[in-house]
Design a protein that fits this description.
Low-confidence stretches of chain B: none
Order of helices and strands of chain A: H
Distance between the termini of chain A: 54 Å
Low-confidence stretches of chain A: none
Order of helices and strands of chain B: HHHHHHHHHHHHHHHHHHHHHH
Largest sheet of chain A: none
Structural class of chain A: mainly alpha
Oligomer: heterodimer
CATH superfamily of chain B: Amino acid/polyamine transporter I
Number of strands of chain A: 0
Strand content of chain B: under 5%
Distance between the termini of chain B: 12 Å
Helix content of chain B: over 70%
CATH class of chain B: Mainly Alpha
Number of domains of chain A: 1
Shape of chain A: rod-shaped
Number of helices of chain A: 1
Structural class of chain B: mainly alpha
Radius of gyration of chain B: 21 Å
Helix content of chain A: over 70%
Shape of chain B: globular
CATH architecture of chain B: Up-down Bundle
Strand content of chain A: under 5%
Largest sheet of chain B: none
Mean pLDDT of chain A: 92
Number of helices of chain B: 22
Radius of gyration of chain A: 17 Å
């Protein structure tokens, strides 16, 4: 694979998979904070 | 909407939303279009489309649904006023019209899964198999099977039906896609497929066709503007975070698309010379999924090719079914808003789905016409959401969303996307597809009976719009959205 293709693949995968993982972690922490606040 | 009609948890809403967004198009369309239209350049344009078209529309839908607690008609009336009921009606009719032929697609996927699981497909006979099956009585039988399963889930309600089933289907789908992608990437020669998929041809970023294909794919794939996310948001708990959930849905949908591309394109390039592989990705959705993939997986030199093919059909079936459930729920929700009980609404949707899906099951011409007309109709639906938001003020909606959350907030970029980018993208996409119709058939592009003409779109959309505008007062008088 060419270096350019590797860079684009890394960029796309990190934006999409990194983005969804970060968003899921944020949602999980939000739910945990709300649960802690309500108890 | 009674109190039991709620998702039980954040996770329940997320898996249902991902089930709605990830459909057959992620598996059989995205890899093909990405490989065909520029590889790396397409990928970059597709990411821009996600943030400029899909996510803003998902945010609008989620916000409207959570606030109105009703289907599209009620949401438009509640948000933009009594005169906008017809717009919600167009969204509901457009999505339901897609449900009619999407149930046919789901039936095809289920048929191929069961056929391969219990009888077995043969590499040399797959083309004849597809020609015999498409348009046959079996396609009608599996249309009924797909609709029955989806309607049964919807009949059980939001928590016991949709949420419970999606909690099984959606994680299974991601596992199947990971297995398929891992196997594909282990094939000797798979790197050629990755190179083709992510090739750095930046000059193509100046090609308008790459951008229009990327925006069209993003609009059709994420479910933005379909009204489906709005319906699910109506069942969300009061404290759900509009912005964060919309990002999870949009990004999660694209994550599934990437996995499908990593499973399919490297396999094709590992098994065929580059020129032949390029021809295969241009063979159309059905040609790729039901002829080329079985032929390559079964006839190529892949250890466990038969099992991999079963995984592929299972993923395709699960993706299609979870989206079909959302479409059936939209039809049911709309009828419930008009006064029917869930059971009666589900019966009406089932009968309509079978009656109006049957022509698409029996004729590929009807199927392709409906796919063309209502696929483009989704762009109109998306534009109607943006128009409703512009009418009320994007800044006002943004402040409402920010006031109701302790989590992710919206900033001025949202207003700019709603006022400038979405309308520009809509006009460009619709204009370009109509221009394509005039290139395909210069003499008949306005023919209302043409399969892929602008005329057939304008006539079918026009008929629906005239009826809905005439019925607007009645829709409001039924109490929808009040």
């Amino acid at each position: 694979m060419s270096t350019g293709a590797v860079i684009i693949m890394a960029l796309v995968l990190s934006v999409v998979w990194g983005g969804v993982t970060a968003a899921l972690i944020m949602a999980w922490r939000q739910e945990k904070r709300r649960r802690d606040d309500s108890t | 909407m009674n109190g039991t009609e709620r998702f039980s948890s954040r996770w329940g809403l997320i898996v249902a939303s991902l089930g709605m967004a990830v459909g057959a198009g992620n598996i059989w369309r995205f890899p093909r279009v990405a490989a065909q239209h520029g590889g790396g350049a397409f990928m970059l344009a597709w990411l821009v489309a996600l943030f400029c078209w899909s996510i803003p529309l998902l945010i609008i839908e989620f916000s409207w649904g959570k606030k109105s607690r009703s289907g599209p008609i009620g949401a438009f009336i509640r948000q933009a006023g009594a005169r906008w009921g017809w717009a919600g009606g167009f969204v509901a009719v457009g999505c339901t019209a897609i449900m009619f032929y999407y149930a046919v697609v789901t039936g095809w996927c289920l048929y191929y899964f069961f056929r391969h699981a219990f009888v077995g497909l043969e590499a040399g006979a797959v083309e004849g198999e597809w020609q015999q099956f498409a348009g046959s009585g079996w396609a009608l039988v599996f249309l009924a099977v797909a609709l029955s399963v989806a309607v049964a889930v919807v009949l059980l309600g939001v928590r016991r039906g949709i949420e419970r089933v999606c909690k099984v289907l959606v994680p299974s789908l991601f596992v199947l896609l990971v297995v398929a992608a891992a196997r594909a990437l282990m094939l000797p020669g798979a790197a050629a497929g990755l190179e083709h998929l992510f090739r750095p041809n930046f000059h193509l970023l100046l090609d308008h066709q790459v951008w229009l294909e990327a925006f069209s794919q993003s609009a059709w794939s994420t479910g933005a503007g379909w009204g489906l996310y709005l319906v699910y948001a109506g069942y969300a708990r009061k404290r759900e975070d509009v912005v964060l959930n919309s990002f999870i849905t949009g990004l999660g949908n694209n994550a599934a698309s990437l996995l499908a591309a990593l499973a399919i394109i490297p396999t094709i390039f590992a098994l065929l010379p580059a020129a032949e592989a390029t021809a295969v990705v241009a063979s159309g959705n059905e040609g790729l999924a039901f002829v080329w993939i079985p032929r390559l997986f079964l006839g190529g030199d892949i250890l466990g090719g038969g099992v991999l093919l079963l995984v592929f059909f299972a993923a395709l079936s699960v993706a299609a079914l979870s989206s079909l459930i959302a479409m059936v729920e939209l039809g049911v929700r709309t009828l419930m808003d008009l006064g029917l009980t869930r059971n009666r609404a589900a019966a009406v949707v089932a009968l309509l789905g079978f009656g109006l899906g049957a022509p698409s099951a029996l004729s590929t011409g009807v199927f392709k016409n409906q796919d063309w007309v209502w696929g483009l109709g989704l762009l109109v639906s998306g534009a109607l959401f943006a128009a409703g938001t512009i009418f009320c003020g994007a800044g006002r909606l943004r402040r409402e969303i920010n006031a109701g959350t302790d989590g992710a907030r919206l900033y001025g970029w949202f207003d700019m996307l709603v006022y400038a980018v979405i309308p520009t993208a809509f006009v460009s996409m619709l204009g370009w597809w109509f221009y394509q119709a005039s290139v395909w058939d210069p003499g008949g592009w306005l023919n209302p009976l043409g399969k892929f003409s602008a005329g057939t779109c304008l006539v079918q959309w026009g008929a629906v719009l005239v009826i809905l505008i005439l019925a607007n007062r009645w829709l409001y008088s039924r109490g929808v959205g009040r």
